[in-house]
Amino acid sequence: MQRLREGDVRAFDALFERYAESIHRFLSRRVGDSARAEDLTQETFLSVIRARRRYLLGRSFRQWLYAIASNAARHDLRAQRREAARLRKVAVSSPSTVGSKTTGIEERDVREALASLPDAQREVIVLHTYEGMTFAEIAEVLATTGVAVRVRAHRAYRTLRKLLGHAEEKQ
């Protein structure tokens, strides 16, 4: 990162090569769509270039990068909600029922359960479970306290257990 701050574009290539895949995985889980995650990954790395002079040497680059990605996802999800709300106001729809056959807890069930969590809880779960960050690292990424992260994680895991327990019962 120091080399990138000094203008070495090859340093950016090295950072992108090392972190792009894990950032894309994080964002895919966070926003629930691989194509949107790809766009957000690109946006994240563009933000790294734009903010390179604000990066504090000695700070964990990984945590700084995930904070940028997390902010991009949060912004994108807010925009998606605003658009969905706008479309709901405009659209005239009738309720429909769609039958579906459930075969126990599957990846789809986990994705749906994650998607139903509040953003702050989903973010903690994705960073902890899928990205392997400690609660202290997550607190740094989210600019909050470790206690707040633990509370969010506890509530999220409890909700997921309930939701996934119901998915298992449908079997």
Give me a quick take on this structure.
The protein has helices at residues 2-5, 9-31, 34-50, 61-90, 107-116, 119-130, 135-142, 146-169. With 171 residues, it is mainly α.
Fill in the keyword field for this structure:
171 residues; mainly alpha; Rna Polymerase Sigma Factor, Chain: A; Arc Repressor Mutant, subunit A; 8 helices
Write the layout of secondary structure elements.
Layout: H1 2-5, H2 9-31, H3 34-50, H4 61-90, H5 107-116, H6 119-130, H7 135-142, H8 146-169
Task: Please describe what this structure looks like.
It is a single chain. The protein is mostly helical. It is 75% helix and 0% strand. The chain is globular and about 55 Å long.
Integer tally of domains: 2
Radius of gyration of CA atoms, rounded to a whole number: 18 Å
The CATH top-level class label of the largest domain: Mainly Alpha
Q: What is the succession of H and E elements?
A: HHHHHHHH
The SS-based structural class is mainly alpha
The shape, in one word, is globular
N-end to C-end Cα span: 50 Å
Q: Report strand %.
A: under 5%
The number of strands is 0
**Continuous helix count:** 8
Reported by name, the CATH topology of the largest domain is Rna Polymerase Sigma Factor, Chain: A
CATH architecture of the largest domain: Orthogonal Bundle
List unreliable stretches of 5+ residues: 87-102
